[in-house]
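Board work, copied verbatim: 3-ketoacyl-ACP reductase
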Amino acid sequence: MTNKTILITGATRGIGWDIATLAAQAQYHVILNGRNQEQLDLCVATLRTRYPDAQIEGVVFDVTDRAAVAQVALSVGPIDILVNNAGIALDSWWVKMSPKDWDDVIATNLTGVFNVTHFLTGNIKNGGQIVMMTSRSAMLGNMGQANYAASKAGLIALTKTLAQELKRRDIRVNCLSPAALTDMTVPAMEKVKKRYDGKLPEEWQIGSSKQIAEFVINHLINTTNTGQVYAVNGDEFGYWEEPTYHTLRIKS
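↓ predict structure ↓
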C-alpha cells in the first residue's frame, strides 16, 4: 500500500488506462484524466469496483484547454507523480500533411504537455516524478510522421531542461519511448503490414500496453535518475544515450 498520488493524462484507454489500473492495484491515490465525461466516469467506477481500498478520482479536461488545466491545478491538491500520457497521431506524407494536422498534433502532444506540466508543477511534491511519453520516431524520424516525430522530439528537449530546472526540488523528469499495440498505433501497424505483404518485420514486433504500464509503475516512477530517455518494447527495456558531438574541422 502507498500514500502516493499519481495523475495520468489520457487515462481512459491504452497505455494510460493500464498505468491507472496497475497504480490502483498498488493502492495509489489515482487521478485519471480524460476528455469524455461519460467514458471517464465508467473508468473511475470500474477501478473503484475492482480495487475498493484504492482512492480513485477523475478529472475531465482537454490538455489543449489551458484555462481548464489551470482550474484543475487549483482543485486536485498535492501530487507525487505526473504522467503526461495524452497524445494523438495524425499521420500523412509531408507533401500531403495539412496545416491543421500539424497544428493539432503539436497542440496536443507538445503544447498540451506544457499546459499540464506548467500549471501542475506547483502541485508536485518535492521528490516527485514527472513522466513524458516520447517515441522512437523522435530520435530516428519516421516517414509519414513529421508532425508526430517533431512533437515527441520536443518532449525530449523539455524533459532534459526540466530535469535541470527542477533538480533543486528533487523532482525527477524522465521520458519513456513505448512500443505497444494500442488504439492509436494499430492503424499505423496495419499500414506496415500491407507494405510487407501482411507480415510485420522483426523491428516492428511490439509488446502490450500492460508491459509499458508495468515498467512505469515498477521501475520508472521509483528511479533516482533524471533527464533520461527510456524505451520499452515487450519484455525488453533500455535507455537512449546522449547525442555525441564529433568535431569535423577546427578553423585556423
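The domain at 5-180+209-239 is CATH 3.40.50.720 (Rossmann fold).
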